[in-house]
């Protein structure tokens, strides 16, 4: 669509999106998350939309549209199901049996009343170890919502054994209160802090502080958007121990990461 988008195409896109999952136009790609020795410890599921009408549209365009129309709710349920199914399959593959899977959850979806039950039910239905599922939410989730209800949602998810990561950490409403009051398990350092981390002293300071904060609170910390060996070296030096980015693999079909095992 790009800059030539009209109100008409916008509406039409939203209409297409409403049926995308039932038409089989949505799929997930997977991007590895690695440890200090660059061994894969998990994957992040990233949604893709291959529209019959418009071709491939990037998430930066269709996710906001889906949030406005409400389609994100059923799309999010679809992604969670699909992700849990993938986890179930991985549990039978030796190299993948321990991998975690991170699924992105929009604020709107997270804050619906049925969300926690849906997650718990999905974990049971697919018979997966709950600790292998991680929900990624951005700090947007803390807007427009009462803290007690949310606190309860976070608590129930964590009690079920499912992980919660704060995605794009540092770019939203980085209130220390939610880190204190809610049971989060992981922080993902936004890639805008990683991009220039080898040269920019401010980025270095922020990254060091986030890593220390995570350690002090007993949280996992993952650096997003790691593209160069120099960035990786810096991140290791300051105590970051999990990484994601093009340096280790682009989002791809899962077979990309598994095929060598099967052959
Ligand atoms: P995110 O969850 O922060 O995902 C990471 C994004 O960074 C992905 O973009 C990924 O392709 C990109 N990325 C990973 N490594 C690198 C790198 O080294 N360099 C650069 N430049 N980029 C890198 P993608 O796939 O376009 O997704 C964009 C956003 O769309 C995601 O950001 C997430 O917020 C949202 N999204 C994707 N799938 C879903 C979903 O199933 N549900 C919801 N609610 N949102 C989703
Ligand atoms: Mg994410
Ligand atoms: Mg992110
Ligand atoms: Mg992001």
TrEMBL record:
Pfam families: EAL (PF00563). Residues 10-263 form the EAL domain. Gene3D superfamilies: EAL domain. SUPFAM superfamilies: EAL domain-like. PANTHER family: CYCLIC DI-GMP PHOSPHODIESTERASE PDEF, OXYGEN SENSOR PROTEIN DOSP. The lineage of its organism: Bacteria, Pseudomonadati, Pseudomonadota, Betaproteobacteria, Burkholderiales. This is EAL domain-containing protein.
């Amino acid at each position: 669509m790009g800059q030539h988008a009209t109100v008409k195409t916008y509406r039409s896109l939203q209409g297409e999106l409403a049926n995308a999952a039932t038409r089989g136009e949505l799929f997930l790609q997977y991007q590895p998350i690695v440890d200090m020795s660059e061994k894969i410890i998990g994957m992040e599921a990233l949604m893709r939309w291959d529209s019959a009408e418009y071709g491939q549209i990037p998430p930066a365009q269709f996710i906001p549209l889906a949030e406005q129309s409400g389609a994100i709710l059923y799309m999010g349920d679809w992604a969670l199901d699909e992700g849990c199914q993938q986890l179930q399959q991985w549990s039978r593959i030796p190299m993948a049996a321990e991998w975690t899977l991170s699924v992105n959850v929009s604020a709107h979806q997270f804050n619906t009343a049925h969300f926690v039950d849906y997650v718990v039910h999905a974990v049971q239905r697919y018979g997966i170890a709950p600790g292998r599922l991680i929900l990624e939410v951005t700090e947007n989730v803390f807007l427009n919502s009462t803290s007690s209800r949310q606190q309860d949602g976070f608590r129930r998810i964590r009690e079920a054994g499912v992980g919660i990561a704060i995605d794009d950490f540092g770019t939203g409403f980085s209130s220390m209160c939610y880190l204190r009051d809610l049971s989060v398990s992981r922080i993902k350092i936004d890639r805008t802090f990683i991009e220039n981390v080898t040269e920019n002293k401010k980025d270095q300071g922020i990254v060091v502080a986030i890593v220390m904060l995570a350690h002090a609170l007993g949280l996992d910390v993952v650096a997003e958007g790691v593209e160069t060996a120099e960035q990786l070296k810096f991140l290791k030096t300051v105590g970051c121990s999990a990484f994601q980015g093009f340096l280790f693999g682009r989002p791809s079909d899962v077979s990309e990461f598994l095929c060598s095992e099967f052959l």
